[in-house]
Amino acid sequence: MIRVVLAEDQAMVRGAFAQLLDLQPDVAVVGTAGDGDEALAAVALHRPDVLLTDIEMPGKSGLDVAQELVRRGDGTRVLIITTFARSGYLRRAMDAGVAGYVLKDAPIAELVSALRRVHAGERVVAPELAMAAWDSADPLTPRERELLREVTTGASNADIAARLHLAEGTVRNYLSTAMAKLGAKNRSEAANTARDRGWL
Description:
Residues 3-119 form the Response regulatory domain. 54% of the residues lie in helices and 14% in strands. By secondary structure, it is of the alpha/beta class.
């Protein structure tokens, strides 16, 4: 039996996936979560074989959760299921130790197959994403990504500087470099471009 924790912030989608997975003779959904923090708690409580998680959730993202599980030395394998066919997300997922990455619009049979393969120790990637991942390298440094994420919240340079304990000039320099790398006219355009490509 494959023990699964399911993390998805939309209650209706979460319920539908749980019901569909419970119909499989070899799959048991032992816990569900509506955000990243709940997902980590559910994994700690239920010790599932696989965490099936969305990427974009309140609080910690699915990628944040995957990285935290690796940091903790947790043996739970992570299978990402998302609507976002962004190569940047896939590369970050692989870097975070994710075992699989599939799209929500795939047939349920493909999801179940991916779940079984991940449980068996394989790595599974939606074919439509596999090639694109190699064509779109993320040019941003971790610090540039961190600052652009702050920009997406509407924070000013002064706010970002205070929050991250940096000089305002340092923030400006990082954002200018990111803008140049992305060919953006301003910091908002740079943040939007990076988010659209799955780099944030």
